[in-house]
Amino acid sequence: MTAKKHHSRAPGLLFLALFLLLAMPMPLRAGEALVSGQYLSSGGQDLQLRITVAGPAPGTLIVIQNLPPGMAIEAASPAFHQYDANKGEVKWLLTKVSPGSYLLSLRLSRPVPAGSISGEIRYKDPASGRLTHLPIRP
Amino acid sequence: MDSTKPLAGGVPMVNIDGARIRRLREEKGLTQLYVATVVGVTTDTISRWENRRYPNIKKENALKLAEALETQVADIVDHGQPASPTEPSSPQNSEPPKQDEPLPQPPEPEPSPALAPAAPQAASFKARFASFPVPVRLAGFFLLALAILAFLRWYGPSEGESQVAAYRIVPEHATPGIPFPVVIEVTTSATRPFSLILKETLPPACIPAQGKPRFVSQASDPPVLKWIDKISGEQAVYSYLAKLQPETEMETGHQFSGGVTVRSDDNPSIPVSGTDSLQASPFHWADSNSDGRIDDEELLSVYEIYGGIEGLQFGKKLIEEIWTAKGYRWNQETRGYDILH
Asked: Is residue A40 one of the residues assigned to a domain?
């Protein structure tokens, strides 16, 4: 009886072992944060932010800096692509981005209180193709 | 001795060495299909050239043949043998003028005679298998299925085999007269370099422009573009600009088609998948949702797809201008976009 039971279990166990072997997922590389942004100076007349890009990098980034509406900009480095003074929205378009750090700075016509501004990085995730909105850390 | 001689009609002809052509082709591992596709003739014609049934061919074809065989024309010319009485260059034996006949399919394999004696053995195995209890038979089926799966998983597409796929990216719409980009990505699992021919047929209303890398324009009605290339990596990107003729009617659909021929593959052609149609529209091709503006996502998509192609002039200045503006509108009179600030 016992022997018979063992005999009938053998194919099942073999099937289970093979199934587990086949169903075992392939090792995947965990995706790390591709892009990050941080303010080096978030108040006063001069604002500075650093964008860090890791590989595999998205090829293009849009960096958005929100300022108090009506604020005038005296200088920018690099030059921004769009500024809507009514909304206080500055947009940079960074193309042909490669892994590394990028510094963006603005000189405003009047100082702003520290921590009163916000910004965002927008890019297409290279793996999923989805639009990603990433806030710039203070 | 000069092996080039004009026909009565003035077409320069070349006396070719069929045996040498076959040897060169086999040495380089090229199929008759590959050579036929490069030259623009059928595999039957290549076979006839190799077997000296057409000892004289057009000089133009001899040049293409030499290109396909990666050699010089001098290497395939029969220097010592003029058209002999046994192989006269009569119209019957000369190369036929019609070259655009469809490529023949490879013949179906003959059934192997070795299968015949196996029938009684199979019957005996069947009878023995039927005598087993049902759970054992079921387990047998499972094991067989698993063995097949395991075989496919570990021994399926081996490294050396060329698994080729081609994918086309075309905008959903484009304005007549405004250039739009088309990208064809060819991916492969092959580890060794191999040659391929990519053939792209555009809609008749399309005018091709810049190609990256450069294409060979083969025909104009409809336009046919051809790339002959050697792939050494996992992916190769072929791109071009095209525009719909300015008089193209709005809201009409236009079809693209294409195929890849690989030299180490006997399949006639691997069709290009992906987008194959485009609509004539007053909206810019980068404005994918046709809302009269180019938003951040649309701009990023454009740069992700086309921005990495060095030298492709897909009109980024206009796209950025529209992106930074409030919108745009097609002006039928000026045949340009009015930017709305």
From this structure: yes
Q: What is the pLDDT of residues B88-127, one digit of tens each?
A: 333 344 444 444 344 444 443 433 333 334 444 555 556 6
pLDDT tens, position by position, B75-97: 888 876 554 433 333 334 444 44
Contact residues of B toward A, CB < 8 A: 135-136, 139-140, 142-143, 146, 149-150, 153, 296-297, 299-301, 303-304, 307-308, 320, 323-324
**Cβ-contact A65, A87 below 8 angstroms:** no
* Alpha-carbon span B121 to B109, nearest angstrom: 24
B324 and A91 within 8 Å at the Cβ level: the answer is yes
A85, B100, B172, B179, B239 from B245: Cα distances, Å: 41, 27, 17, 10, 19
Flag whether A13 is in a domain. Answer: no
Here the ipTM equals 0.75
Q: State how beta strands A131-135 and A73-77 pair.
A: unpaired
Q: What is the CA radius of gyration of chain A?
A: 26
- pLDDT tens digit sequence for B296-315: 999 999 999 998 888 899 99
Query: What is the reported pTM?
Result: 0.62
In chain B the domains, ranked by start, together with CATH numbers, are 4-76 (1.10.260.40), 164-340 (2.60.40.740)
- Only one residue has tokens 């490069």, namely B38
Torsion of CA B123, B128, B133, B135, to 10 degrees: -60
- Which letter, b or e, does each residue of B184-204 get, where b requires 16 or more Cβ atoms within 10 Å of its Cβ? bbbebebeeebbbbbbbbbbe
CATH number assigned to the domain comprising residue A48: 2.60.40.3670
